[in-house]
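Retro notes, structure queue

What went well: the backlog is down to a handful. What didn't: a couple of records were mislabeled last round, so from now on we paste the full input next to the output in the thread. Example, using L-rhamnose/proton symporter RhaT from Brevundimonas staleyi:
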Amino acid sequence: MPGNPFLGVIFHWLGGLAAASFYVPYRSVKRWSWEIYWITGGVFSWVVAPWFFASIQTQDLMGVLSATPSSTIGYCILFGCLWGFGGLTYGLTMRYLGLSLGMAVVLGLCTVFGTLIPPIFQGTFVSTLIDNPSGNVVLLGLLVTLLGIIVVAMAGAKKGEPVDNAAIAEFDFKKGVGVAIFSGVMSSCFAFGLAAGEPIRQLSAAAGTGPLWVGLPVLCIVMFGGLITNAVWCGILIARNKSAGQFVGKMAPEDPSMPVAGKTSLALNYLFSAVAGTIWYFQFFFYTMGESQMGRFGFSSWTLHMASIIIFGALWGFAFKEWKGAPTKARLMVFSGIGLLVFATVIIGYGNYIGR
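Corresponding output:
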């Protein structure tokens, strides 16, 4: 089936919606420590959902993976582990810089590294982007994306945070920027893991899997790497905080840092965590579908992914009244930033279309 860039953009937007929405069910988890609901949801994100959907949507999954060179499997796991570090340090960035500035730095770096490094690594940067009119259009879309991220961040800064940073109890610009750079670079490793998994996609296609689904086996391997990093860290926290009993009903004490206080249902905690983890997986489920439609400009998929996360994340912020009482100028700026991001996806989609 030939690529369809417009359809690819739609799939990427669905993935961004999933990425921006996955944390919503966690808000209903009651009296579980972070490490408990994070690893519980993570089991569905990194193991259950990837293997389930790959097994029903692809042909001869185990045969494809057993035929994959060990070096390819190793690189996919390695980049998955590095990506896991990015996810773990993302929260520290929010702690030291605040949501608006922290998100702008991390996602901005993810966008740049995740979009530009794969073609540089593959040796196609000049031929694909510089010496190609459609590549020039894609580069323009990337620049508009970065501009949109900056505008959204500036809107967050004007939202109403005191100039003395009292709204961020642990504000530390130097430490925050350092952690944000680490998180942004590590998080972009997911794009590298997908690029390293190209032989798996080829084997899956040869086995008879349709173009939309050939990337699903790659997710099984890359996400296993993410599982390793997150499981080790959550295991350390569980041992340190003696929170293992929460898995079987020994709830954490009432604490404002917990997602929600109130009456607890162990079954509901597992249900909400499972739903959150599965939604999280769907961001990459749709990502691989979108990437399959982007032709030789598949590297721009990461830009579309990052932009759509910010778009839907901002909309969730409005839905939860996070911008209530914010100055009118800040509201206008955030809508302008979202508009730029939407426009950027159109530009990138058009660049891919004329480059088919």
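Agreed that this is the format going forward. Reviewer comment attached to the example: The longest helix spans residues 70-97.
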